[in-house]
Amino acid sequence: MSLKEQLRAYARLLVGTGCALKPGQELQLTAPVEAAPFARMVAEEAWAAGAGDVTVEWDDQFTGRLRYLNAPMSAFESVPEWKRALLNGAAQRGAAFLFLEGDDPDGMAGIDPARFTAWTRASHRDCKSFYDGMDLGRNVWCIGGVATPAWAKKVFPGVGEEEAVEKLWAAILSTARADGADPAQDWADHSDTFQRRIKLLNDKAFDALRYTDPNGTDFTVGMNPGHIWAGGGAATVDGTWFFPNMPTEEIFTSPHRDRAEGIVHSALPLNYQGGMIEDFWIRFENGRAVDCGAKVGLDRLQSILDTDEGGRHLGEVALVPHASPIAQSGILFYSTLYDENAACHLALGKGFPECVTGGLEMDEKALAEHHINISATHVDFMIGTATLSITGIAADGSETPIFRNGNWVGEFA
Ligand code: ZN
């Protein structure tokens, strides 16, 4: 297949499998201006699939950056009326949301992190229908990568721009399993392979997981009563199966908000809101991040923790084998969508309602009572290495190895 044919297949995959778009359903598409040719292909595929409407919100990081640099702080403390109407309205009408991501990882360097924090908080308050629609399983949504020149040059330094973009597209297509003869079937098979491990983990219903690694990680995280492991896709409340992330390699749940003890060390640099956090650690007591350090970007790390009280607690525990294709590619994408599928990770901030029994029917208060973390933020950080061990601890104290040397072992292998 030519690159153009592969891109067409990828566009069809994002619409048909990622969003599971139904005839008559609206598609709300967000796309970088640099990726306009691909976004137009996505729109064509959406109409071909019978979309009720297709709306594109073009995203330009350059002018977005200018706004962050020049607008008064008040511009980030509330969301403009038009944007609220766009996003909340689409959510209320049952739209599918497709986010194409291709930002320059360094494109927001030097901007006061307090501005991002204010914007995150305002967005969640003012676009509540939009976020609730996705968080509570009412709307389907999918995030997929698109190659842009700035991102490609960051991932593949030392080659010309055109070659870098081609290499990044190839990496996007192969890690998203979009380069085979029948990507939709490949995704059905990929999804099935998740289900066996998810069932095993759910049947075990561990009380806690213990992480140890020669890099200094020595950490135990408590599981919720009634916690649910998920991955390989998600279902809406009305039973539509969709894929929030393409690629996806992780099996995840939300831990007990107040049960994390010990220290975790990062395994990969974290790109957070346009800047890097590198070589960092976080220490937890009673589920709360009480201390942290970083060789690069300590102020950014602290700004995550300071988003709100929930920013200091964990919302996600995710298992990704070191043998995963993204890890094996050896490519650092500087993008959470890819890098989080390269390594076991944790997330600071918001937990997932679908990860506790009955959670999709609960409001925030009920979720909090079930020890699911509530926050305006959710930031993944990678802790999985080739030497990580994870052990499941049952309520009776018995131990089951889950990961050794970075990969599934025993009955989980
Ligand atoms: Zn994750």
Textual characterization of the structure:
The protein is globular and about 55 Å long. The protein is of the alpha+beta class and 413 residues long. The longest helix has 22 residues, at 183-204. The two termini are 34 Å apart. Strands 5, 6, 12, 13, 14, 15, 19, 20 and 21 form a 9-stranded antiparallel β-sheet that branches. Strands 2-1-3-4-10 form a 5-stranded parallel β-sheet, sandwiched between helices. It has a 5-stranded antiparallel β-sheet with strand order 7-11-16-17-18, covered by helices on one side. The protein is built from 13 helices and 21 strands. A hairpin with a 2-residue loop joins β20 (399-404) and β21. 34% of the residues lie in helices and 27% in strands. The site of zinc ion (ZN) has 7 residues, from β16.
Task: From the structure above, extract its key features.
413 residues, alpha+beta, 9-stranded antiparallel β-sheet, 5-stranded parallel β-sheet, 13 helices, 27% strand, globular, binds zinc ion
Major sheet: 9 strands, antiparallel
Q: What best-fitting shape do the alpha-carbon axes yield? A: globular
Q: What is the overall pLDDT average? A: 95
Any ligands, ions or cofactors bound here, and which? zinc ion
Span of the ends, CA to CA: 34 Å
Helix % is 25-40%
What oligomeric arrangement do these chains adopt?
single chain
Strand elements, count: 21
Put simply, the count of helices is 13
Query: Per DSSP, what share of the residues sits in E-state strands of 2 or more residues?
Result: 25-35%
Structural class: alpha+beta
Compute the gyration radius: what is it? 20 Å
Task: Give the low-pLDDT segments.
Answer: none
